[in-house]
Design goal:
- With about 325 residues, this protein is mainly α.
- The longest helix is centred in the last third of the chain and has 26 residues, at about 260-285.
- It has 13 helices and no strands.
- Helix 2 crosses helix 7 (about 165-185), helix 2 (about 45-60) packs parallel to helix 13 and helix 12 packs antiparallel against helix 13.
- Helix content is about 75%, strand content about 0%.
C-alpha cells in the first residue's frame, strides 16, 4: 500500500535537519496519516453497527456468548464495516469533493491517494471475511461478504446515483450486522433475527431523511437524487412518518419472539417519543416553519440504541 509522502523539511544549506526538530515533525506526519486512514473507515458508523450486533448475538445465545466469539465478530464486523466505508469513499471521491459535508474527507482533501484507499479497503474486506469464515461459520462469512458487495456495488455505484429510493434499497446493508451476529452464534437465521433486521431496515429512512434534508443543497450540487432533493415536502413527510411508524410497530412485533417486558416497556416508551418527534418535524415542514431535522436524526440514534440495549438486558436477565 502506498503511503503519503512526508513533506521535506526546508534546509537551504543542504545539511540534514537536527534530530530534535525532525522527530516531532515525523511523529505528526505519522499521526496525520493514521488519522486519515481511520477517517476513511467512518468510525461512527462502525460504532452504530456494533450496537445492533452484540445484542442480536446475546438474544440468539439466550445470554452472553463466549467472549472469544464476541471478540471475533466484533473485530470481523468492524473490519467489514470499515472496509465497506473505505471502498465507499473511493467510489464516491468524485462527488465528495463537490459537497461541503464531505469535501474534507481524506480522498477529496488529497490526504490519501485513491490507489492507497482502494488497497486498504480490499485488504480490510479480505481480512474480515477470512476471520468470519475461520472462526464463526460459513453463513456468517457469506453474509459479511454479501453486505460489503451490496453496499459498495449495488448501493454506492448504482442505486445512490440513479434513484430516490436509494435509501430504502440500501437499508439492507445497515441492517445486515443483526443477521451476521445471529448467524455467528447459531449458524441459522430465526424469526427474531429477521424481526430485528426489519427494525433496523425501516429505521434507516426516518434516520437518514432528516440528514438529507439538512444537506439537500449538497446532494443537489453533486447530482445525487436523494428523496428530499427530488420529491415534494409532502412526499418526504409521508415517508418519514410511514417508516417511523413501521420502525416502532416492528420493534413491538419482536416482543413476543422470546422477549419480555424488560424489552417491551422501554421500547414502547421510546417508540412513542420517536413517533412524536417525527410528527413534529413533518408538521413544521408542512407549515413552512423553520425545521430542525437533526433533532430527529439524533433522536433516532438514541431510539435504536435504547431498543437494542433493551434486547441485551432482556437476554441477560
Amino acid at each position: 500500500m502506498s503511503m503519503i509522502t512526508e513533506r521535506p523539511a526546508s534546509n537551504p544549506a543542504g545539511q540534514p535537519p537536527a534530530r530534535a526538530a525532525d522527530g516531532p515533525v515525523a511523529r505528526r506526519d505519522v499521526r496525520a496519516i493514521v488519522s486519515a486512514y481511520v477517517a476513511l473507515t467512518k468510525p461512527r458508523i462502525v460504532e452504530l453497527l456494533l450496537v445492533t450486533t452484540v445484542p442480536a448475538m446475546m438474544l440468539a445465545e439466550g445470554g452472553l456468548p463466549s467472549l472469544w466469539l464476541m471478540a471475533v465478530v466484533l473485530v470481523g464486523g468492524s473490519l467489514a464495516a470499515g472496509a465497506a466505508s473505505v471502498l465507499n469513499c473511493y467510489i464516491d471521491r468524485d462527488i465528495d469533493q463537490l459537497m461541503r459535508r464531505t469535501k474534507r474527507r481524506p480522498l477529496p482533501a488529497h490526504t490519501v491517494s485513491p490507489r492507497s484507499a482502494l488497497v486498504f479497503g480490499l485488504v480490510l474486506a479480505a481480512i474480515s471475511i477470512v476471520l468470519m469464515a475461520a472462526f464463526t461459520n460459513l453463513l456468517a462469512a457469506a453474509l459479511t461478504l454479501a453486505a460489503i458487495v451490496y453496499y459498495d456495488v449495488i448501493y454506492t455505484m448504482w442505486l445512490k446515483r440513479s434513484t430516490p429510493t436509494n435509501t430504502f434499497w440500501g437499508g439492507a446493508c445497515g441492517a445486515a450486522p443483526v443477521l451476521i451476529g445471529w448467524a455467528a452464534v447459531t449458524g441459522t437465521l430465526a424469526p427474531a433475527a429477521w424481526g430485528l433486521f426489519a427494525v433496523v431496515f425501516f429505521w434507516q429512512m426516518p434516520h437518514f431523511y432528516p440528514l438529507a434534508m439538512k444537506y439537500k443543497d449538497d446532494y443537489a450540487r453533486a447530482g445525487i437524487p436523494m428523496l428530499p432533493v427530488v420529491a415534494s415536502t409532502r412526499r418526504v413527510n409521508a415517508e418519514i412518518l410511514i417508516f417511523a411508524w413501521l420502525t416502532v410497530l416492528t420493534s413491538l412485533a419482536v416482543w413476543p419472539l422470546g422477549l419480555s417486558a424488560i424489552y417491551g416497556v422501554p421500547t414502547l416508551v421510546v417508540g412513542a417519543v420517536f413517533i412524536l418527534e417525527a410528527h413534529r418535524l413533518c408538521r413544521r415542514a408542512t407549515r413552512g416553519e423553520a425545521v430542525k431535522p437533526m433533532r430527529l436524526f439524533h433522536w433516532s440514534t438514541t431510539y435504536l440504541t435504547i431498543v437494542f440495549v433493551a434486547v441485551a438486558l432482556d437476554a441477560l436477565i
